[in-house]
Write a structure and sequence with these properties.
- The protein is α/β, with parallel strands linked by helices.
- An 8-stranded parallel β-barrel has the order 1-2-3-4-5-6-7-11, surrounded by 4 helices.
- The longest helix has 13 residues.
- The protein is globular, with a radius of gyration of 18 Å.
- The protein starts with a strand and ends in an 18-residue tail after the last strand.
């Protein structure tokens, strides 16, 4: 089993990002994803900065992938996407079908990100024909869903051709919108947001009228209110999952990475907190926390 660090979903200062990836270089992670996937206004790190980090991490022995934007809204974002796809060195995680089209056009292999939302064997089969080498399954798929999908007769002969990655830790990315919720929460227009996301390194919590934390708002992105945590499911993942993804948090990311690595065989389980959930993987409501350590 390999472990990955997903792209940082939040808007952090440049120095914070560079320190984070310096720590990643010395960590036990196998794969690191780099790039801005939420909002193109977030320019603390530019393309050349990401490339410099990519080379540093590769020299440290990590596999590096570049992640593309999820919701393209302007010609400038399309130009930046082409720059990523033409990097000539690192594998791309395509987070929308426009990136997949560009990569196929240039006959380049790619990773299909979770926002592309693949739910059936026919779609995976088609993406394989376009050059897909790995897919990150949609966050709401259960273990039973994935097992059934990957055991489809259409995919069985090609199973050796691609890897499957599971988002296993972090607030679940659920939706994206043309509107910016963080700007709106500060009574600002999206075009005059003044990059206010940088004040919220872990997003803004949203509670229901009865006080339950239901979502975390992160610019144009809506995340789950509870933190997804599948640490106790690691020993039961089976042969379907090749890579376990840790989504970077503002604090404690590498402590959690070590906990996950140490519990691959179930010898170091960890009780979930009241603010954590694991429902989707167990085919329950997404926000449910199943306390049993045996499932």
């Amino acid at each position: 089993m390999k472990f990955s660090l997903g792209p940082v979903l939040f808007y952090w200062p440049k120095q914070t990002m560079q320190t984070f990836y310096q720590t990643a270089a010395d960590s036990r992670v196998d794969i690191v994803y780099l790039g801005e996937t939420v909002c193109s206004k977030r320019r603390e790190l530019k393309f050349d900065d990401y490339m410099a980090l990519a080379h540093m991490l590769r020299e440290a022995g990590k596999q590096v992938c570049l992640s593309t934007m999820t919701l393209l809204e302007a010609p400038s974002e399309l130009r930046e996407l082409k720059r990523y796809c033409d990097n000539g060195d690192f594998l791309i995680e395509a987070n929308d079908v426009g990136a997949i089209g560009l990569l196929h056009e240039h006959r380049l292999p790619f990773i299909c990100g979770a926002p592309v939302s693949i739910y059936n064997a026919q779609s995976l089969h088609h993406l394989l024909s376009l050059g897909m080498q790995r897919w990150v399954m949609p966050v709401e798929l259960s273990q039973d869903n994935v097992k059934k999908l990957l055991n489809d007769p259409l995919l069985q002969p090609q199973r050796h051709r691609f890897e499957t990655e599971l988002f296993a830790f972090g607030h679940l990315p659920l939706a994206w919108s043309a509107r910016c919720f963080t700007a709106r929460s500060e009574q600002r227009y999206k075009d005059q947001c003044e990059l206010c996301c940088i004040k919220y390194p872990q997003g803004r919590k949203v509670t229901s009228q009865d006080g339950q934390e239901v979502f975390v708002l992160n610019g144009i992105q809506t995340l789950s209110g509870a933190r997804y945590n599948l640490i106790n499911q690691l020993p039961h993942l089976g042969k379907e999952v090749d890579i376990v993804r840790i989504s970077p948090q503002s604090e404690g990311t590498f402590d959690w990475l070590n906990k996950f690595v140490n519990n691959q065989d179930g010898s170091a389980p960890h009780p979930l907190g009241a603010d954590e959930c694991n429902g989707y993987w167990l085919q329950l409501a997404g926000m449910v926390r199943e306390p049993s350590l045996a499932r």
